[in-house]
Amino acid sequence: MNIIPTINVKTKEEAERAIQALQELPITWVQFDIGDGIFSARETLDSPKEEFELIGQYIPHIFCEAHIMRRNPEASARAWIDAGVRRIIIHIETVDKNTLQSIVSYAKEKNVRVMLALLPNTPVSALSEYKEVSEVQILSVHPGPSGQSFIFEMVEKIKLLKRMFPFVYIEVDGGINRNTALLVAKAHADAIAVGAYLSGSKDIKENFKLLREIV
Question: Model-level pTM?
């Protein structure tokens, strides 16, 4: 299972500290959380060029994804695609079909993958009209700050998603720690996006190691 640290920050200085802390971890991906303070309860830094400069300075070998938690996501999504993300994550609750198709088309031009995200209260059946979906994120907290508690009903949602779409790549984001990572792994998710359990720990390398042993 892929472990993807998340960067959920308000300033460039916080972003630099967060990225520096990832230098010694054996990771291949990192996720930027982009919140608008409306759709997401927390407004975060949305400065893709500056943040990619920091990636290039400290961890240039890492692939990046951007989780767009904005009521109107298209402009931000395009900016992150232009900056160099390899995957863009879009909430189906924030787009109509035309907007999503616009984002998908632009992403394809740049060889960027598109993952669809579901809020905790959005049913898996909402994906039925998106037949082309190949990657899905289940948000296991409500959009906002790192450090929220895992919503345990999401374990059954992961299992249902796997049954309905057996070939879909599933990422689970929010409230991940040693205990919840094990539940998610047993539900056959493919990746976990991890915030406070790593970024808020006294020993990020040790906590990453503990996760790696589980998943």
Answer: 0.97
